[in-house]
Write a structure and sequence with these properties.
about 500 residues, alpha+beta, 14-stranded antiparallel beta sheet, globular
Length: about 500
């Protein structure tokens, strides 16, 4: 064990395998900046030597696999509607441009195929009780905290969009071959699809929701972040994001064993002014423990690039005023090794869905960013089936959030809601993500995220594109692996 840990011991010594794991944490307290990174690596080595790296893979039966494309969609959602018809049967009639839309090419703001629809009803604090069994705890808390202003307009549910045949093919193969490794922190399978269309474990659902199997091959966009304080004052951030998930290159058949990189990211800070020119870039792999995320930061003040050890988890995400953690972007992302994961179940809930309006170029931020929460008239909620998984902080680990409930839409496999609890067990922050289906992607895109701090009475409107000249530029070949990493950060920052 000591030999395995030597490479991690320059800052903090490793410990013998016989020492209780809880004591490993204490060893690392001497160096706070590196502790989390070193701990994850060393614990991974401990578990590897003790023979607990792989999670037993409950292979799907031929009968289960045969359900895909029959009573289940090709990516695992239930095709049928619900008993009263308020959730319709899946049609999947559009993977590209929907009817009635003139697609102008990538980089334009999204167009709304449901622009003429009106809400079926509106949930308010006054009538919330009759809909309580279809609301998350976070939504109930927002009604309680802002009874005069928070409301939820509920629209007809639509299940008209699907993934491409390439995603379906990759998903079908993954139903046969995909497996979790490294105690659920790594994955083996075919990139470009859903890994576990018929999940048996919470970790499988989490990997479906967070690993880049269905994201864009490349993304390039400038977005605004508005941190709205309790008094209505707004602190602004602006980021130019360039991302790549190489396993999702259209037309390619790629397996995780042949391509160790899951995704690349590069974020150039444009606002606030004090951080202008800062670049954060990194590489994510298919196994968060065996190959932890590598991240670098370019500091425009010193014009130097430094590695960011242990990047992720509950570090503050740049340009958000500390209002969200790194692993809250897109509701949840990155390693889940600090938590124990459980399936709560699948439930019918009112969640953000098909909300093209909130991304419209015709909206001005002044009309969107009302005190306490975003202008509720701009939201669109639909009744949908969601998986609910729960993360409970493991003994000996630390994070701002002691418990997290994630709500994952069965049709897109995107996390759309999250409730985050503090160490006292009190609901602290609740978040929601607006996802939209885009023709240039032929899949779902993570759009505007809304993160509410119930203690501070503030919220973050994240990833706004309304007043930007362009929308999301997707699946273009002009982004390469050479655009990421320390040298690329230096070039971009200057």
């Amino acid at each position: 064990m000591q030999e395995v840990c030597q490479q991690f011991s320059r800052v903090t010594p490793c410990v013998p395998m016989a020492m209780p794991l809880v004591l490993i944490v204490d060893v690392y307290k001497e160096n706070k900046m590196r502790r989390n990174h070193q701990l994850g690596l060393c614990l991974g080595a401990v578990l590897a030597l003790q023979g607990h790296v792989s999670i037993a893979h409950a292979a799907l039966s031929a009968e289960e696999i045969a359900r895909l494309g029959n009573d289940l969609t090709c990516f695992g959602a239930i095709k049928a509607g619900n008993a009263d018809g308020s959730i319709p049967e899946f049609t999947g009639k559009w993977s590209g441009v929907p009817d009635g839309i003139e697609f102008k090419g990538t980089g334009h703001h999204p167009q709304n195929p449901y622009a003429n629809e009106q809400p079926l009803f509106v949930i308010t604090a006054q009538n919330m009780s009759q809909y309580a069994d279809r609301l998350s705890e976070g939504q109930k808390a927002l009604f309680k905290q802002y009874p005069q202003t928070f409301k939820m307009p509920v629209y007809p549910s639509h299940r008209d969009f699907t993934y491409t045949q390439g995603v379906c093919d990759a998903t079908l193969e993954n139903a046969r071959i995909a497996k979790l490794v490294t105690d659920g922190e790594g994955i083996e399978g075919r990139a470009g699809g859903v890994f576990f269309p018929i999940p048996k474990r919470a970790e499988e659902i989490r990997m479906n929701a967070t690993m880049g199997g269905r994201y864009a091959w490349t993304e390039d966009y400038v977005s605004d972040n508005a941190y709205v304080l309790k008094d209505g004052k707004i602190n602004w951030g602006r980021v130019h994001s360039r991302n790549m998930s190489p396993g999702n290159e259209p037309g390619k058949v790629i397996y995780t064993k042949d391509l160790p990189v899951s995704s690349y990211y590069s974020n150039l800070t444009m606002l606030p002014q004090r951080d202008k020119g800062e670049v954060n870039t990194g590489v994510t792999y298919w196994d968060y423990v065996a190959k932890p995320i590598q991240s670098w930061r370019y500091d425009p003040g010193t014009r130097r690039v430094r590695q960011s050890p242990g990047y992720g988890y509950d570090m503050a995400f740049p340009g958000t005023g500390g209002s969200i953690t790194v692993d809250e972007v897109r509701v949840f992302n990155g390693s889940g090794q600090r938590y124990k994961w459980d399936i709560v179940g699948k439930q019918e809930l009112y969640v953000p869905a098909n909300n093209y309006k909130i991304h419209s170029k015709d909206l001005k931020y002044a009309d969107m960013l009302t005190p306490n929460h975003i202008n509720p008239d701009l939201m669109r909620y639909e009744l949908r089936r969601v998986w609910i998984i729960r993360a409970t902080l493991k003994e000996g680990f630390r994070h701002l959030y002691a418990k997290r409930d994630l709500y994952i839409d069965e049709d897109s496999w995107f996390p759309v809601l999250a409730d985050n609890y503090d160490n006292r067990g009190e609901l602290w922050r609740t978040s929601m993500l607006n996802t939209i289906h885009l023709p240039d992607l032929q899949g779902w895109q993570a759009g505007v995220g809304l993160y509410h701090d119930l203690n501070a009475g503030s919220y973050l409107a994240f990833n706004l594109i309304n007043e930007q000249r362009k929308g999301y530029i997707l699946n273009q070949p002009d982004i390469t692996a050479g655009d990421f990493g320390p040298e690329a950060a230096r070039r971009r920052g200057q």
